[in-house]
């Protein structure tokens, strides 16, 4: 038997301008399984021991947008090419859209821009026509949400069945079928919220020559409900270190938001056994922060644990932003003796 030695070379800065990195496949640790809990729904479990420090999941975003102030001047802006998504510092030179749609769209090299042409064409006219009016009328949050939906539709348009990114494994769903199976529906959100999203869909996301997707208004509304329940914010430092370090180190400034078909299955705990952090290419990486025993659920934290520390503030934040009352081990143990709560679990992600 011959011995194979793998050597990994770190790309140098000069490589950046010429090479579009190959899109990395999703990777799931063999001891990780998806199961369904009667109360919590879909979840991730360990089928066998996962030692502390083990990398358990690397998931590629199905759609990702930059979230930065003043993009033209911001050093954290990411390359728009989904096969790259590296942060593209201004001093290394950026390549902008020839149609000058919005300054948030930039590529780290002309190779990245050219390779991304067909995908960007899907969103370019929409961005040019609607980005500024939406920002002016509805604000940055709603613009980001709608743009993320447009990028989900662009990925679907490029690869409707998820065939290009789907390793043929048994249980994990990838690509559009992974997105379609995410939790989240209009029942999860307040009527007022759903009404507002319906208005946005009818005004900006209808199937049209500007945005040809072939889906009904209801399906796009459902997609917003799914996206809002499952998208991740991308931050430069880890989320979910428990117990939080002293002095506290927060996760830093958000620079992007993304939807990950597999990472989205992880439920929340206020004492998670996984930490999560995006790598330099926008992949979401989960790492075991302690030994995880066979059968145990693998959870992340949906928020920065250094920011909400006591039971009341954690539950209030989760109720408002993620629409459930947390019943994790830590919350239960910190409950005053008489408190009882309705358990309405919804796996959702931070944005
Ligand atoms: Zn790039
Ligand atoms: Zn453009
Ligand atoms: Zn909790």
Unreliable parts: 1-18
Question: What is the tally of helical segments?
Answer: 9
Average pLDDT rating:
88
The number of distinct structural domains comes to 1
What global shape is seen? globular
- Gyration radius from CA atoms, angstroms: 20 Å
Can you tell me about this structure?
This is SET domain-containing protein. Residues 30-303 form the SET domain. The chain has 351 residues and is α+β, with helices and mostly antiparallel strands. It has a single domain (25-72, 130-351), classed as Beta-clip-like. Helix content is 29%, strand content 14%. It is built from 9 helices and 13 strands. It has a 4-stranded antiparallel beta sheet with strand order 1-4-12-11, with no helix packed on it. α3 runs antiparallel to α4, α4 (140-158) packs across α7 and α6 (191-204) crosses α7. The longest helix is centred in the middle third of the chain and has 22 residues, at 117-138. The protein is globular and about 60 Å long. The model is unreliable at 1-18 (pLDDT under 50). The protein binds zinc ion (3 copies). One zinc ion is lined by residues 79, 81, 84, 86, 107-109, 112. One zinc ion binds next to loops.
Question: How do you describe this structure in short?
Answer:
The chain is of the alpha+beta class and 351 residues long. The protein is 29% helix and 14% strand. The protein contains 9 helices and 13 strands.
């Amino acid at each position: 038997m011959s011995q194979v030695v793998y050597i990994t070379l770190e790309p140098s800065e000069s490589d950046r301008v010429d090479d579009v990195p190959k899109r990395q496949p999703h990777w799931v640790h063999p001891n990780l399984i998806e199961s369904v809990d009667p109360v919590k729904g879909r979840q991730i479990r360990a089928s066998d021991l996962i030692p502390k420090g083990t990398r358990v999941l690397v998931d590629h975003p199905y759609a990702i947008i930059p979230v930065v102030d003043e993009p033209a001047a911001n050093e954290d802006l990411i390359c728009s090419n989904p096969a790259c998504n590296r942060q593209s510092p201004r001093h290394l030179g950026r390549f902008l859209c020839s149609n000058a749609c919005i300054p948030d769209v930039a590529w780290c090299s002309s190779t990245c821009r050219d390779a991304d042409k067909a995908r960007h064409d899907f969103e370019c006219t929409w961005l040019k026509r609607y980005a500024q009016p939406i920002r002016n009328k509805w604000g940055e949050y709603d613009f980001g949400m709608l743009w993320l939906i447009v990028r989900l539709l662009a990925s679907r348009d490029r690869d409707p069945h998820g065939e290009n990114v789907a390793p043929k494994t048994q249980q994990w769903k990838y690509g559009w079928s992974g997105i379609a199976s995410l939790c989240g529906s209009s029942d999860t959100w307040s009527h007022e919220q759903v009404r507002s999203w319906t208005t946005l869909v009818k005004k900006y996301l209808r199937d049209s020559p500007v945005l040809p997707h072939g889906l009904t208004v209801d399906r796009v509304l459902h997609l917003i409900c799914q996206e809002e329940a499952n998208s991740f914010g991308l931050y430069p430092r880890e989320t979910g270190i428990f117990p939080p370090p002293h002095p506290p180190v927060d996760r830093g400034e958000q620079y992007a938001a993304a939807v990950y078909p597999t990472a989205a299955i992880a439920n929340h705990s206020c004492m998670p056994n996984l930490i999560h952090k995006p790598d330099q290419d926008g992949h979401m990486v989960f790492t075991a922060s302690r030994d995880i025993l066979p059968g145990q659920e693998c959870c992340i934290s949906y928020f920065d644990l250094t920011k909400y520390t006591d039971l009341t503030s954690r539950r209030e934040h989760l109720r408002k932003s993620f629409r459930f009352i947390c019943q994790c081990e830590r919350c239960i143990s910190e409950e005053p003796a008489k408190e009882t709560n309705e358990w309405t679990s919804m796996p959702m992600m931070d944005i």
